[in-house]
Amino acid sequence: MEFAERHDLLNKTFTPRSPVNQRQLFSGRIDQLAKVQRAVESPGTHAVLYGERGVGKTSLANVAEQIAPIWNSETIALKVTCNSNDTYSTIWRRAFSKITFSEKSQSVGFLSETSINTRSFAETLPQELTSDDVENALQRLKKHARLFIIFDEFDRVFQASSTLTLPFSDTIKSLSDNNYDITVLVVGVADFIGDLIAQHESIERAIVQIPMPRMSSVEIGQIIDTGAARLEMAIENPARQQIVKLSQGLPYITHLIALHSFQEAITNNDANVNKGHVSIGIQTALDEWQASIKTDYVKATTSVQKKNIFREVLLACALAEVDEIGYFAAADVRSPLREVTGQSYDIPNFARHLKEFSSENRGKIIERTGQAKRLRYRFNNPLMRTYVIIRGVAEGMIPLEKIR
Ligand SMILES: Nc1ncnc2c1ncn2[C@@H]1O[C@H](COP(=O)(O)OP(=O)(O)OP(=O)(O)O)[C@@H](O)[C@H]1O
Ligand SMILES: [Mg+2]
């Protein structure tokens, strides 16, 4: 492959900033796709797909939208991406505007001709949609097709508009009570689910909850291999392992590091990616990381005292074992801090650091909850946690082998 061609293809292969929208580039997630398929195939069943930022929700939604008509040829699948200006009415209007139909029209006059016009279904509906309008519209549509409607980034509307919850769960309830052949899939970060379900206890039965966990090492490895094959390149095993490990199950990180590592190899006219390319790739990835994360890191770790341990404690926090929802306790920081510094620190030696990380002064990089003695901590932004670890490895503060 020519240099220019490979270079061009690289930016379409590793795309940290955009979700996957081609099945060939989509790796793993068999289990989650099967659950979506089951929901689509059972009338009256709807689903919520939820998981942390950057874990691959939109990519899965894109692929599900593409393959739903293969699961069942009568299915019309459509996806609406919500934003914080949306309301109940606007998200449904956008869904209906994606359904088009053809209409014959006869022009009047002597030489009357028939022409075929394409119209969007939304044009046949009132401007401001109530839940009755939506239900009527869906009732009309269900005669013609099985519908699979995906609302992505649902958490955004949800946070912005408290008036969305009730009519939306009314609609879900009514669709499932009437056993319509319509499946709604709601996608987003988890916050909204409790509220959505709380509106009607009985809708809990009609909604399948599909958590999106981080990806396994095998799935992450596949992303790298698929990309390498597409670029007609190879990657040495230690280099591949390095990317897998640093990704920590987040495909976003895989794409980011792979992009820059493969770029480095291509620039050096090398079709074989090695550890040296990956080291440079990591450095570039760190440099290109969202500016806000980099500034927050500096704010959290800078001190006028030369022999301070803010960087080390922050890294130990990022390495600490967490519970299901990402929280750790001060005691969990002790052992990684020993690994990072080679010295034993007890909780009182770093309690002040933990407290400061959750203060305005250090940018509230970590949030703190619970009562004294039972305090729990969590990174405010999960990507910050990943950034801290990758930076720690790049700066030689912790060997890669120590990353779980
Ligand atoms: N199954 C997959 N195979 C290969 N790459 C993936 C897969 N899932 C996600 N990615 C990649 O990971 C990155 C994040 O994916 P995506 O945008 O789908 O995540 P998300 O959970 O929707 O993120 P957000 O919470 O920010 O909306 C993208 O670069 C995407 O290309
Ligand atoms: Mg998304």
Kindly report the name of the CATH homologous superfamily of the largest domain. P-loop containing nucleotide triphosphate hydrolases
* Spatial sequence of strands, sheet with the most strands: 2-5-6-1-7
Highest CATH level, the class of the largest domain: Alpha Beta
Q: pLDDT average, as an integer?
A: 90
Structural summary, described in words:
- With 404 residues, the chain is of the alpha/beta class.
- It folds into three domains: 3-13 and 215-288, Helicase, Ruva Protein, domain 3 (Orthogonal Bundle), CATH 1.10.8.60; 29-211, 3-Layer(aba) Sandwich (Rossmann fold); 291-402, Orthogonal Bundle (Arc Repressor Mutant, subunit A), CATH 1.10.10.
- Helix content is 50%, strand content 14%.
- It contains 18 helices and eleven strands.
- The strands form four sheets. Strands 2-5-6-1-7 form a five-stranded parallel β-sheet, with helices on both faces. The chain has a two-stranded antiparallel ribbon with strand order 3-4.
- Strand 10 and strand 11 form a beta hairpin.
- Helix 2 (30-41) crosses helix 3 and helix 15 crosses helix 16.
- The chain starts with a helix and ends in a 10-residue tail after the last helix.
- The model has no long low-confidence stretch (mean pLDDT 90).
